[in-house]
Design goal:
mainly beta, 30 strands, 8% helix, 49% strand, globular, binds 2-acetamido-2-deoxy-beta-D-glucopyranose, Peptide N-acetyl-beta-D-glucosaminyl asparaginase amidase A N-terminal domain-containing protein
Length: 604
């Protein structure tokens, strides 16, 4: 028990600090620390934080832009979400939009934790994000998100709701000053509206849904509209009813994890915790999966990307480059079309959400995207095949006292197929989800060193056909590598030195094909970070963080490459390219794969 890491854990658990990227005010986490306030430099420029991502591909038309909300988020914790009335952009010179972009811009100054927040339009979540941690001299950051897939909602007046649970007191002074703007980009050439309804082309499969239903909690609420999943048996359910002329359905799931499960991939198994009397440490091992059920039967799963929020692991790593996904958390699509036959009856049905091995707390909600048959009042459907066996999970462990080694693996697949008869014909849809998970965790030096090496792979395939012809196929393969080395060194003078080496990757290959053509894209996005912190009590009294990021996106239409690094709040180098140079990309692919293998990351 003399080890510094344990004392650090326990001393932190005694504190009563507001929780970062979380709503829980009464607990804190081993990685959750506060920085000693820095002196405010006179006339110092404000720092611009950013997440590395490719720019949104925009039409060349002039956008019509509207400020939807301007609000200062001071003490907002446990208050109702901030509301605003959204009205469609009737003053715009065109009403035919090919792209709609949400822009979040915020400034903050002083001291504050990172806070999770959500933006909803009449209950449909359109952005899940985390705030940046400010500094005394002030910061600013902007998030742009393509919200074209919610076009059908944006055609009518809606209520915009934003929940950002902030706490402001004498110590945590940071108030978030926020603007939300929508940019509407008219189409370059008028979009062919008959094509959409023609029975032959079924182009509706590639356009945004005709209706998006919220699968979230209803207002009024003194919280976000997300459901809270607090433990492994907790199932949160929502009733819904769909129009009887639906012919396609996709459930988009939003997920974030906090408090005891913020770093779920570092949680040791309960046996280790019990054997070592570490009862305040979060446990249940490192495997988590979000399970989605429809009327009690499992229809899909999510193996989520390990988003690290702006105060996570070592807050100094994320200034000004922030963690992958932290400003715009990914959402996950589950094809529901094969199950339409079960829910086209005009009755209420229920989606349920649970998280295997969950500890308090996961924030989950979803949007049901529906495509409607404008030529029929009713469609009909039948589920042909559905298998969703339990995941295969295995744990190999060996530990003696506080030192040990654990390998957790899991895999799962969910298959479904079904037909829907609409004015487009009798379309059969096949859907397959496949997942694999591997986590190795090593504790050394009496748990003063922890090394986690994890890889998540997720594959989603959807294929739709008429009896005699193919309609479309979409496939995505994601691979999320994570390596985290963390060590605490006790210099024996009452402070601790905490070291972290991190490697975090988000890789995705997408392929889609329809009669009108095929497209494919590949994304390799990797961050390597090194951080050190001197900690006294719960204060980081010194330290340094540096992060390098390589981002390479390549598709038949557009390319984007970025090689950027930051250290001690300063960008060291930043190289950007947006031209598709196949030859140089091939050379780059080699350099990248070498870089990735050197930093212990694989690619597909
Ligand atoms: C928000 O918009 C207002 C009005 O355009 C502007 O004065 C203010 O500086 C903006 N604030 C932020 C954080 O961008
Ligand atoms: C799990 O969470 C639910 C919802 O808060 C609660 O009702 C239930 O008692 C909890 N179960 C356990 C075993 O703690
Ligand atoms: C854990 O606590 C129990 C009872 O308090 C004690 O008997 C046991 O020796 C402790 N084990 C360790 C490893 O400290
Ligand atoms: C402890 O030692 C480290 C490294 O020598 C130093 O940076 C830190 O300020 C010292 N802490 C105290 C409380 O003396
Ligand atoms: C952590 O990263 C630094 C800098 O890249 C490197 O020198 C060190 O060997 C790494 N440590 C481990 C344990 O990976
Ligand atoms: C990224 O930039 C750094 C500094 O210019 C350079 O050393 C490195 O080779 C670059 N990496 C790639 C993959 O281009
Ligand atoms: C970090 O940058 C500041 C200036 O912004 C400088 O005063 C400080 O010495 C730097 N720290 C390190 C460890 O380089
Ligand atoms: C991480 O695990 C993968 C296998 O899943 C292995 O290929 C890789 O070498 C490991 N990385 C390190 C740094 O141990």
């Amino acid at each position: 028990m003399g080890s510094s890491l344990l004392i650090l854990f326990f001393s932190l658990f005694l504190l009563h600090l507001p929780f970062a990227c979380n709503a829980n005010l009464h607990k804190t986490h081993r990685f959750r620390l506060d920085l000693r306030p820095q002196p405010s430099l006179k006339d110092a420029p404000i720092t611009r934080y950013f997440e590395v991502t490719k720019p949104i591909e925009l039409p060349k038309t002039k956008p019509c832009s509207y400020l939807i909300l301007q609000h200062d988020f001071g003490y907002t914790y446990t208050l109702p979400p901030v509301l605003a009335n959204y009205t469609p952009p009737s003053n715009c010179y065109s009403q035919d939009f090919s792209k709609i972009v949400l822009e979040w811009t915020a400034t903050c100054k002083g001291r504050q934790f990172d806070r999770i927040f959500g933006v909803w339009l009449s209950g449909v979540e359109i952005l899940r994000s985390c705030t940046a941690e400010p500094r005394a001299t002030g910061i600013v950051w902007t998030v742009k998100k393509d919200i074209t897939r919610y076009s059908s909602l944006l055609k009518n007046p809606q209520t915009l709701a934003v929940y950002l649970g902030n706490v402001v007191d004498q110590t945590y002074t940071g108030i978030y000053h926020v603007n939300i703007t929508f940019h509407f980009y008219p189409a370059e050439v008028p979009q062919n509206t008959h094509k959409r309804n023609s029975a032959n082309s079924v182009s509706g499969f590639v356009s945004p849904a005709d209706l998006v239903l919220p699968i979230s909690r209803n207002l009024p609420l003194n919280d976000g509209l997300w459901f809270l999943i607090e433990n492994s048996t907790d199932v949160q359910k929502k009733e819904f009813k769909i129009p009887q002329n639906s012919y396609r359905a996709v459930l988009e799931v939003y997920v974030s994890f906090h408090s005891d499960d913020e770093f779920w991939y570092t949680n040791p198994p309960n046996e280790y915790i019990e054997a070592n009397n570490l009862t305040d440490l979060p446990g249940n091992g490192p495997f988590r999966e979000v399970v989605v059920s429809l009327d009690e039967s499992v229809v899909g799963a999510v193996y989520p990307f390990t988003v690290i929020y702006t105060g996570g692991v070592n807050p100094l790593l994320w200034r000004p480059i922030t963690g992958i996904g932290s400003f715009n958390l990914p959402s996950y699509d589950i094809e529901i079309t094969p199950f339409l036959g079960k829910i086209l009856d005009g009755d209420n049905h229920k989606f349920g959400f649970s998280v295997t091995n969950a500890l308090d707390v996961w924030y989950i909600d979803a949007n049901l995207h529906l495509w409607l048959d404008s030529n029929r009042e009713r469609t009909e459907g039948k589920l042909l095949r559905h298998t969703s066996p339990r995941p295969q999970v295995s744990l190999v462990q060996h530990f003696k006292g506080l030192n040990g080694f654990f390998i957790t693996t899991a895999s799962r697949s969910i298959l479904s197929s079904g037909w829907v008869k609409s004015s487009h014909g009798m379309i059969t849809t096949y859907s397959v989800q496949g997942f694999s998970f591997r986590n190795s965790m090593e504790m050394k030096d009496n748990f003063n060193v922890q090394i986690v090496n994890q890889t998540i792979e997720a594959c989603n395939r959807v294929f739709a056909k008429l009896p005699s012809s193919f309609i479309y196929s979409v496939e995505s393969k994601q691979k999320f590598p994570l390596y985290l080395y963390s060590a605490n060194v006790d210099p024996g003078n009452g402070s601790f030195l905490s070291l972290a080496n991190l490697s975090l990757g988000f890789n995705e290959d997408r392929f889609s094909g329809a009669k009108s053509g095929f497209s494919s894209s590949s994304l390799r996005n990797l961050q390597n970070g090194q951080g050190s912190m001197f900690i006294e009590g719960n204060l980081v009294v010194g330290g340094l963080g540096s992060t390098e990021q390589l981002y390479a996106y390549d598709s038949s239409k557009e390319c984007y490459f970025r090689n950027v690094s930051s250290k001690n709040y300063t960008v060291l180098y930043d190289e950007k390219r947006d031209i598709c140079d196949k030859k140089s990309l091939r050379g780059l692919g080699f350099r990248l794969s070498r870089w990735w293998s050197l930093s212990a990351r694989g690619s597909f």
